[in-house]
Amino acid sequence: MDFTFTEEQQAAVEAAKAVFSGVAPDSVPSPALTPGAVADDFDRTLWHQLAEGDLLSLLIAPEHGGAGLDPIALLLVLRESAKVLARIPLLENSSAAFTVQRYATEELRAEVLPQMARGDLVVTVAASGRTGHEPAELSVEARQEGADWILDGTQTAVPWAGIADRILLPAHAPDGHAVLALVPRTHPGIALDDQVSTSGERLAEVRLDSVRIGAREMITDPAAWESLRHVLTTGTCALALGLGERVLAMTSDYTGTREQFGFPVATFQAVAVQTADRFIDLRAMEATLWQAAWRITTGAPGALPPAGDVAVAKIWAAEGVRRVVQTAQHLHGGFGADTDYPLHRYHAWAKQLELSLGPAAAHEEALGNLLAAHPLS
């Protein structure tokens, strides 16, 4: 394994840092003080800046106006975005673009990818299923009727569904395999019910009642949904890593200047031990993230399928980001709960990321099943 990033990937990081340097994490009302969503829309100004910096087209092929990079470049940019709590559908839009680029027909690629590269077309992804606790593809039924497909079902907690132009959602065909449908938000038969995330962002429950779409909007390759799910999952882990790194840096700055008994509290052994433990958490989150990203990007063989590496990354990300923000809250004392200070915002985002990843115990069970099915020699 070689985790050295390429020049193109490093250039994407530098471009992202330049764009995100002007973003304030407290640019919208606090989710702790807002009964509904903190804003009606995502940060459109930042979205256009990312488009101008070619950061929305990282995974899109050059013939469609993109850079043609791999998902690792996206994960690096997502890591930077989480440090400033960037309110944009970058993960969903880029994951959808990658899936369309790899698995859709040339006709669909030519239609949507140039628009997505310019930031003119926003696509979100439904990946939570009907309740958030079941395989998302089982929540929608897809059946063919002549040259069209008919969709029925419900997907919950779809990010930015009330704002995005299209929704990429999984469904199950009569033979049981997963397909993907790229449906316009305003398509006949689609109804949206507003929901709000723990971090105060807009979600929606998407209900499909005999939604008819053409075959050109369907992606039927059996590998498409698993690929999309892996990119979404590792992207969420990258967000957790970036957020955790920023929170630990905030904690270091605070404990290095906050004095008690005439000394910075960072010099106290109990404080140093706790921050050291959280540093170890972040390094484990980083190592397992890049291991999983390397497997899904290169297709390199391993003792377990790539899903095993993804499960390990999810375990560390879900547990690690929670421990980091809890320790930060503790070491900040009462100051950490001050709504004029941004730490509570990071705590809310961390909880949302943890909920999105799901409980570590479930991933440990999935990893156990993989180990049982693929005994290590």
Describe the structure.
The chain has 377 residues and is an alpha+beta fold. 49% of the residues lie in helices and 16% in strands. It has ten helices and ten strands. The strands form three sheets. Strands 1-4-5-8 form a four-stranded mixed sheet, with helices on one face. A four-stranded antiparallel sheet has the order 2-3-7-6, with no helix packed on it. A two-stranded antiparallel sheet has the order 9-10. Strand 4 and strand 5 (178-184) form a beta hairpin. Helix 7 (269-298) runs antiparallel to helix 8 and helix 8 (306-332) runs antiparallel to helix 9. The radius of gyration is 21 Å and the shape is globular.
Write the layout of secondary structure elements.
Blueprint: H1 7-20, H2 44-52, H3 71-83, H4 90-103, H5 106-118, E1 123-125, E2 140-145, E3 148-159, E4 166-172, E5 178-184, E6 190-196, E7 202-214, E8 218-219, H6 224-257, E9 259-260, E10 263-264, H7 269-298, H8 306-332, H9 343-357, H10 360-373
Parallel strand pairs: 1-4
Antiparallel strand pairs: 2-3, 3-7, 4-5, 5-8, 6-7, 9-10
